[in-house]
Amino acid sequence: MKLSSSFKVGILSLIALLIFFCTVLWVKGRAFSSAKRIEVQFKDVNGMRPGSAVQMMGMRVGQVEEIKPVINGESSYVLLKFVITNPDIKIPKASMISIQQSGLIGEQFLEITPPKVRNVYIPVYSREGLYNGAEVEIKLDDKYYNVGSVKRTQIMATSTIPENMQQYIKTPYAYKLGYVINLPGLILPEFMVGEIVKGENGSKLRIAPLDNTAIPYPHQTSIYTVVEPMRISDFLDLQYQAAASLTETNKKINDLLDDSLITDLKQSIYNIKKLTAQATTTLAKAEKLIDESRADLESIMVQANRVSDEFCKLSGNINGIIGDPQFKPTLMATAKSINNLCDELTPILGAVDAKKFAEDLNATMSNITEITTAVNSMTKDEKLKSQLTTTLDNLNKALYNVSLTLEAVNNPKDASNIKCIMQDAAVTVHNLRKFSDKLNKRFLLFRLMF
């Protein structure tokens, strides 16, 4: 069948209209897909346009269909709609959605990042651990919330974990717990610390920042975590602020490091070098002195060892004496006897004025000594000398009798007799003192006459 020219023109026109319609839809970002459209809210889309690609883990999975600003006073935002053209792709809850750019001035695209598995290390104190699927909680504002679940557990040596985490682990082994956050809008620091706590449904993992900084609760309606883009101008403003802060810091440092301070620092460095040299010389002399005195030191050590050995022997002998079963009873009996003797002599000796008795006895002995010395040095008359000697002998005999009396006290048999003896001895000594005083005075007159 032969087609007419009009029919051919009509077919070509329909094809052209279809191509034009598809082109318009592609330019406007419309996709021929029955997949569900997803809406997210941004405060700023940084110039993104409809038709931009949607990527997940570096692979294109859809495109942006519509970008519409919503002006509502203080809560104004940009509504962005996109579609996943691949029906097998499912976006997990709490996935991170951000606007990225390929290169500095390249094409912008929407990046979807599924929740990643984060790791936390906990000391192993017992065999009780966590199982896969256990709850993960964190303190947001002033309350604990369940924000995820544990995906994997592992026990490993503490020496094999990251060095910046080893300071928090004081046990030889540690739990390496991998967990996933499924609370939309919650962005955590890179490193966290954790502990295992008891909950109503069993053990759970409690995490917190290293510096225990308070984290606010993310209040949002979307089931995804939206990350706002950073404009080039904002980035340059941050760089400018950093440069200004650095300039101010350099100015303060220059103000502190003036010429006088630099001079003092140089002088301090010179003094430190000089002191170091002197210390080195002193150490060298000390080493030399130690080397020269090594023999003496060794001799001292030998003597010290000998003293230690002798002391050990002495200690052993003392221990042997003390350990003798007869030593302690004998010592106790002796102490008891001395105590009884003191108790018995105390009332006896108390009957005599001991101080006066001693003074009389000392005075008598002094007089006798002076008379004897003077007689031996001053007179040549043997008769007189003999008479004086006889007198002194009689005096010595009297003192001897006093001594015998005192010896009797050392062997008491009758307490009443001893008291009488002591009193008589005291009277005798007192009379002897009077007699020796008179004799000494007369002998002094005798010396003056001759």
Portion of residues in beta strands equals 15-25%
Report how far apart the termini are.
Answer: 197 Å
* Topology as a string of helices (H) and strands (E): HEEEEEEEEEHEEEEHHHHHHH
The overall pLDDT average reads: 77
What is the tally of beta strands? Answer: 13
Largest sheet: 7 strands, mixed
| Computed structural class | alpha+beta
Unreliable residue runs: none
Provide the gyration radius in Å: 58 Å
**Shape call:** elongated
Fraction of residues in H or I helices: 40-55%
Strand order within the widest sheet?
1-4-3-2-6-5-13
Total count of helical runs of at least 4 residues: 9
Write a compact overview of the structure shown.
This protein is of the alpha+beta class.
Describe this structure in words.
The chain is built from 9 helices and 13 strands. Helix 7 packs antiparallel against helix 8, helix 7 runs parallel beside helix 9 and helix 8 (382-410) packs antiparallel against helix 9. With 450 residues, the protein is α+β, with helices and mostly antiparallel strands. Among the domains are: 13-113, no CATH class; 118-223, no CATH class; 347-449, no CATH class. The strands form 2 sheets. A 7-stranded mixed sheet has the order 1-4-3-2-6-5-13, with no helix packed on it. A 6-stranded mixed sheet has the order 7-10-9-8-12-11, with no helix packed on it. The longest helix has 35 residues, at 415-449. The protein has helices at 5-28, 163-166, 232-256, 259-292, 294-323, 327-349, 354-378, 382-410, 415-449; strands at 37-42, 53-56, 59-70, 77-84, 96-101, 108-113, 118-123, 135-140, 143-157, 173-181, 192-199, 202-209, 225-227. A hairpin with a 2-residue loop joins strand 2 and strand 3.
